[in-house]
Amino acid sequence: MSKHYPKSKVELSGFIARHYDILLNLITFGKYGIHIKKVIDLMNIESEDRIVDLGAGTGNNACLMIKYLSKKGEILGLDISEEMIEQFHSKCAKYPNVRIIHQRIDQPLPYRNTFDKAFVSFVLHGFPHNIREQIIKNVFCMLKDGGKFFILDYNEFSLINSSAFFRIPFKFIECVYAFDFITRDWKNILSVQGFENFHEHIFFRGYVRLMKVVKPR
């Protein structure tokens, strides 16, 4: 549970943090590994890209992204969970151009026009909306002009009208902020923050979406 946002479930520690990848595959019936590989491929990573991974977790995503980069490319992960950072170091130890730092993503960050791409996976839904907006502002500042922001998270949908197969576990597993997240007009929110060229890819019967937006040149 988050010390900063007691109702959130995205800032992980303890047993869940130490076994995160295993648990994620269990609750998706083994489909998450295949899914995330498709997502990374859709990012169209170029060999010299500088990428920031917000809420980088265990390093699983970074290990997939690094396969597209040359030695001139770079990945910086940001996370606050010591257990997650330890796993990240272990998984990415053989990649000299991949690193992670202990850093909150909801506070102003010391990067300006630095990265070609930013990626955040199942993190935004776990914060109050004003904090989500701050994170988006941070990303806008961090990206170069023309930089791309990729958000993998829940799609917009009506929980009441969703299938019981999804609705019941969602109610038990997810934090209160997630219920608000799925009702928001994210194209408008991202546009207000300065992003443009909204594109999306839908997964898991419409419940999960990869959004891509671009910082104007």
Task: Describe the 3D structure.
The protein has helices at 14-18, 20-27, 32-42, 60-65, 82-92, 129-142, 164-173, 176-181, 186-192, and strands at residues 50-54, 74-79, 98-102, 115-121, 143-154, 196-203, 208-214. It has 217 residues and is an alpha/beta fold. It starts with 13 loop residues before the first helix and ends with a strand. The mean pLDDT is 89.
**What is the H/E order?**
HHHEHEHEEHEHHHEE
- Just give the CATH class: Alpha Beta
Number of helices: 9
Number of domains: 1
Q: Care to count the β-strands?
A: 7
How do the helices and strands line up, and which of them pair or pack?
Layout: H1 14-18, H2 20-27, H3 32-42, E1 50-54, H4 60-65, E2 74-79, H5 82-92, E3 98-102, E4 115-121, H6 129-142, E5 143-154, H7 164-173, H8 176-181, H9 186-192, E6 196-203, E7 208-214
